[in-house]
Amino acid sequence: MVKKFSLLIAATSLLACSNNDGGGVINNTNSVQKVSSAPVKQDASSPMVGGWAPVFFTGFDKDQLNQIVDGINEGRVKRAAISYPTKMQTLANNIRDYLQANTGQKIIMKSVELKDTDQVKYNLKQVIVTLYFN
Prior knowledge:
- Residues 1-38 have low confidence and may be disordered.
- Helix 2 (62-73) crosses helix 3 (89-103).
- This protein has helices spanning 2-17, 62-73, 89-103; strands spanning 25-26, 32-33, 51-57, 77-84, 108-111, 127-133.
- The chain has 3 helices and 6 strands, in the order H-E-E-E-H-E-H-E-E.
- It is 32% helix and 22% strand.
């Protein structure tokens, strides 16, 4: 009974806030502002709020590495860090050497030892480059 009552209040609230002009949002001055569904475009020169993203490597992909180098050199990527399983150390070293040579930035590396369990299976054949943004 309480759930039905709560649902009725929510539906009534939605109906009370709706309008017939094709969609919009009512602001404090009781005027209608159109809401755009287009993606927000950000000026390339304005900084991002921040965040991180992983890039996975199973081999030496020079095109993908060049995209990372461009991001670092253009200031879109603040720093990069590499994590890898021990058996992928050679690839991790090659990626680090390439990034450091082309950006002048010191790349932090960390060996990660993960053990498969009955419930979890890890992909131990990849190197992860984590990119950190401004």
